[in-house]
Amino acid sequence: MKDYKEVSLRLVAMPSDTNPAGNIFGGWIMSQIDLAGSVAAKEVANGRVVTIAVDKMTFKKPVFVGDIVSFYAKIINVGTTSIQVSVEVVAERCTPKLYGVCTDVTSAVLTYVNVDENGNKIPISEENKKRAGF
Ligand SMILES: CC(C)(COP(=O)(O)OP(=O)(O)OC[C@H]1O[C@@H](n2cnc3c(N)ncnc32)[C@H](O)[C@@H]1OP(=O)(O)O)[C@@H](O)C(=O)NCCC(=O)NCCS
C-alpha cells in the first residue's frame, strides 16, 4: 500500500451549508467527501470513475460556519476495476477562543469503479496500479 495522505480538497464552510441547528449539514460534508475521494481515485484510474459504495462514515465532531475544512484522501486498495479510498476530514476552527485549532471531524471509506464513456466497468491497467503502489 502506498503510504501517503494528501489534501484532496480544502474549503471554507459557509452559512448556506447549515442544518436547522446552525451547524454544517452532514449531507454537505458527505458530498465533499465523495468529491475528495473521487479526485484521488481518478488519479489512480487515469480516467473516469463512479462511486459504488460509501462505508464506515463516522461523524465524530460538528463542523461550524467559517471552519476551514480539509479532506485528506489515501488510497487503501486497488482491485481489478475498483479503487478504495479512505477520506479523513479535519476542521480548522475560526472562533476567537479556538482559532487555528484542528479537529478530526469525520472519516469515511469509499469505493470507486473505473468506467468507460458508457459507464461500463473497465479494468485498471497494471501500469496505473503499479504507479499507485499496488
Ligand atoms: C459501477 C458499476 C458500473 C459497476 O458495475 P457492476 O457490474 O455492478 O460491478 P461489480 O459488481 O462487478 O463490482 C465492480 C467492482 O466494485 C466492487 N464492489 C461492488 N460492490 C461493492 C461494495 N458494496 N463495496 C465495495 N466494493 C464493491 C467489486 O468488488 C468490484 O471490484 P473489483 O473489480 O476491483 O474486484 C455499476 O454498479 C453502476 O453503474 N453503479 C452506479 C454508479 C453511480 O451512479 N454512482 C453514483 C454517481 S457517481
From TrEMBL:
The keyword Manganese does not apply. It comes from the Bacteria. The keyword Hydrolase applies. Residues 3-118 form the HotDog ACOT-type domain. Keywords: Hydrolase. Pfam families: 4HBT. InterPro entries: Cytosol_ACT, HOTDOG_ACOT, HotDog_dom_sf, Thioestr_dom. PANTHER family: ACYL COENZYME A THIOESTER HYDROLASE, ACYL-COA THIOESTER HYDROLASE YCIA. Belongs to the acyl coenzyme A hydrolase family. This is Acyl-CoA thioesterase.
